[in-house]
């Protein structure tokens, strides 16, 4: 995450360089210091990326983690400085265009601002030098961990663990196996029948904790399977593995105990294993449990001959759909393991939580138990773990209520050993993410539990935050799509609604993975969540507030309100420049009066909120760095003329509002790429819904050179200009009501045909 923060800061400083040169042409030292800062940021970023890829630090490396925290704070401060200067450039007095001020006042303001910027650059350069020197003083750069062995699991920046909780899967009591019959029967058929004598690969895929290892272990130990496959091998691959150790283990399982020379090479072991498998005159079954990457799978391929004509099978378990698809590309045997049904979840929960009550929930505990169970969302590992913790507590409502109220904190706390195995299993998925994907996953902590996140909304927010960079052959939109698909393939996010063309319309995060994201984002000062419950607790403890309150957002980059107003602790906070995104999840009345100090906002998402005062819209128009503005399904009726101030706006979503006319000031937003208006409303004459669009200015739309998506627009007001917007890739139009309009529309489409990919006509 520090690498991501450095990258964002480096990008911000890089963008500023030309502006610094223009504004400080006579102060060479300012530009030189900024150039030094940018170069040093790039070096730090490269170092952290390399260390993340090699797993060269751990949670128990105190000095390194303190340094990392300092690097992150420095990166945040650098980004703040760069964007504060960008914000300053947007102010009228900087360019001397505000006639309200006499020349001498404008000159004084400019001079004070420039001196402040110069001093800030000098101070930040000193901090960059100090952070760099500190890493050398304490030998932090180049520090390495020990080489991995079969008993050491290294999963990046986490504590070393001498025990893998998955290794106990075969010890699971059969009475605790619930909902396993369907998956077991399907895979059993693939094992025993399938398509005859060819070697086939069966993949079992799903998020961590679903029971993939347990399911396959029960098949592996099944008497019918043991008889059908006289030779069987089970290998746990995990994230970091020593191939020589695994190949020796595979050979020993095939042939019995073996003595290997220390000089035996990996290549010799591969050849020996391959030869032994080829010599077998009977079927074999090999399980490669917990394969994390294509690299891991390909490492085993040279040792697995494909000329066994006896119907041998290989089973791969993985959390990564891309791995499963590649392994089973010939057979097509991919089993997507799903969460337990509500009925089976309840059955398993009662077995674990009430062992002394014949697995029957006492009536007085039913409601509380179901609320706790809802947190598990069908994940067997979570149900078994939480049920076991509850079973160890006295059967008192007060005890259970306490766990219910603090379940998220308890699960993520290192001091609560009852959740160790589950916490480790969940952490594996996070720490296996490439460094560049981690901020995208942690960003999901902004959204509430069980919230359906529209894919395109999420992607546009990522882009507006500056998290996504275009490549030589991919646009930012394409890169964001790629990252989304990677998180989906790794089961870090789950699909909720699928479009007709099989693309994902909306997704969600499993409750427990969301708890993990919240915990990690809190450590990274990334997301601050304010809920109605937290605000009520704060009001009850105003005399003695808790030592660490979630409402402290002095460093958080993203503020998410799961209520209708800012709590008093934030309203009293004089410095909210750190906030880059404000998201409000509320259907009640929302006031923005206390957000004025969030002047560096990039993302403002108020979807579904009740905005009725013109003052709120005027406040929004003061956020001159805003790139993403979502007012979808709000109660606004019009847009103010001050809209023209939002010169950096890239996305404006006005769907399902009462805005039917777009002011001429929209044509001043030259960076606007996505403009959504219109929606459906109740037809007063009957039950049907009618579509309404919006009327745009008769002239000026062609000034929006960056616009890619536009809709719904009333065609009758803009037929000529629409035809000149040849960069559009998506268009929605209505009011093609006359033969003349229809003819003009056909001519317009002909002009747009080169780039237009999606057309919607109402």
TrEMBL record:
Boundaries of every NB-ARC domain copy: 185-357
GO molecular function, one term: ADP binding
Pfam families the record matches: LRR_14, NB-ARC, Rx_N, WHD_DRP
Residue span(s) of domain Disease resistance protein winged helix: 446-517
Stretches the record annotates as Disordered: 531-556
GO annotation, biological process: defense response to bacterium; innate immune response-activating signaling pathway; plant-type hypersensitive response
Amino acid composition bias (Low complexity), ranges on this chain: 533-543
Gene3D superfamilies given in the database record: 1.20.5.4130, Helical domain of apoptotic protease-activating factors, P-loop containing nucleotide triphosphate hydrolases, Ribonuclease Inhibitor, Winged helix-like DNA-binding domain superfamily/Winged helix DNA-binding domain
Segments forming domain Disease resistance R13L4/SHOC-2-like LRR: 579-761
Keywords, in A-Z order: Leucine-rich repeat, Nucleotide-binding, Plant defense, Repeat
Keyword Nucleotide-binding in record: yes
Family statement: Belongs to the disease resistance NB-LRR family.
Protein name in UniProt: Disease resistance protein RPM1-like isoform X3
